[in-house]
Amino acid sequence: MFLPKYPDNPTPPPAHIHTPTASAPVRRSLPSVSIDQKTVAAVLVGGVVLTALLAAVAVTAISVAIAAVVLRSLLRDQHRR
């Protein structure tokens, strides 16, 4: 039942014949990517917006740090009196 079935007259597998070629290998070119002006504009606008947001966060952090130093200085002077 589970025995393999062999063909009646087996044929040998074909022999592999290697023939070297003298030509250079085929070079495939990269797929061309078309970039239109809308894509470039969108990337530039996105970069400008992200840069502006980063600058706003940095300015806010510096302002908060300066305000904290000033308040700490004022509170320290008040406690000394």
Could you outline the blueprint of secondary structure elements for this entry?
Layout: H1 37-80
Account of the protein in words:
With 81 residues, the protein is an all-alpha fold. The chain has a domain at 37-81. Helix content is 54%, strand content 0%. It has one helix and no strands. It has one helix at residues 37-80. The model has no long low-confidence stretch (mean pLDDT 83).
Which features characterize this protein?
81 residues; mainly alpha
Number of strands: 0
Mean pLDDT: 83
**What is the count of helical runs?**
1
- The radius of gyration computed from the alpha-carbon positions, rounded to a whole number of angstroms, is 38 Å
Q: Ranges with pLDDT <50 over ≥5 residues?
A: none
Strand content: under 5%
Quickly describe the structure:
By secondary structure, this protein is mainly alpha-helical. The chain has one helix spanning 37-80.
